[in-house]
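Lab notebook: predicted structure, single chain.

Context: the supervisor wants predicted structures on file for every construct in the current expression panel, including those that have not yet been purified. This is the next one on the list. No modifications to the sequence; it matches the entry in the shared construct table.
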Amino acid sequence: MATLRRTDYVGRVEWLGQSDGATETLRSEEMTAMELGFHGLTGARHEGENRPSCVRVTNLYEQGTEIRNVRQLTLLSGEEMDTIAAELGLDSLDPRPVGVNIVLRGIPDFTHIPPNSRLQGPSGVVLTVDLENLPCVYPANEIEADSPGHGKAFLTAAHGLRGVTAWVERPGALKLGDEMRLFVPSQRAWAP
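Prediction complete. Output recorded below exactly as produced.
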């Protein structure tokens, strides 16, 4: 019996980008296609099978402890980005200052899909969702630099809409226009 349930939800890739791991900024550069390996995206800010732990897991590890890298990629919903843009008073939210790798359109309530869900692309590439990606000051600062007076509200506007982090379970290619099918864990919700 499969522990992952195939859903009818499909997200179309409407934007791809890469944050350069060699720079201080998380700003992404637009791409038309990407080749994903077990390490994630070559040259990207969050590339690697392992990573030093960050502030998100300080209740588990001393900062800088080597751990498995389950945040190789950042995925956002086009619909949720539209909502954030409206809250910020912008016509649209440019994915570049937000540091996103993949923008998908078509999966409702995307930021809250269950952890351990899978997204499968036509090449066979499979991404495993880790957790909700919480809003932080880095994209807020980038948005503020591009659109003065709008970035400061990002933390509030993006609450519950910042997408998810994910890691590559099966390598493969991904390109603009590809559709990614959502598979969710079939277990019931935790009820202690």
